[in-house]
C-alpha cells in the first residue's frame, strides 16, 4: 500500500465514519511507523485535518491490547 492509497482509505472511510458518530477531531489516531504512515504526504494530510496521532513502533505486540486476550479466547 502506498501513502496515497492510505490517505484515500482514510478520507473515504474513517473520516466519514468519524463525522457520522460525532467524533470529528475529538479522537486520537493510532498508527505505527510504517513508511506509508510516516510519508510526508500522509503527515501533511493528518496535519491539515488536525488529526492527533499516537505513534507506535511497527513491531511491538506488548503494546497491542488484543494480544492479551488470546489466552482468554
From TrEMBL:
Signal peptide: none annotated. Residues 26-73 form the Tc1-like transposase DDE domain. Coiled coil: none annotated. Gene3D superfamilies: Ribonuclease H-like superfamily/Ribonuclease H. GO terms for molecular function: nucleic acid binding. This is Transposable element Tc3 transposase.
Amino acid at each position: 500500500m502506498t501513502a496515497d492509497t492510505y490517505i484515500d482509505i482514510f478520507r473515504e472511510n474513517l473520516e466519514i465514519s468519524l463525522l457520522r458518530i460525532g467524533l470529528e477531531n475529538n479522537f486520537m489516531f493510532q498508527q505505527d511507523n510504517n513508511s506509508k504512515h510516516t510519508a510526508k504526504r500522509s503527515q501533511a494530510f493528518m496535519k491539515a485535518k488536525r488529526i492527533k496521532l499516537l505513534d507506535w513502533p511497527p513491531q511491538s505486540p506488548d503494546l497491542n491490547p488484543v494480544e492479551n486476550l488470546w489466552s482468554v479466547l
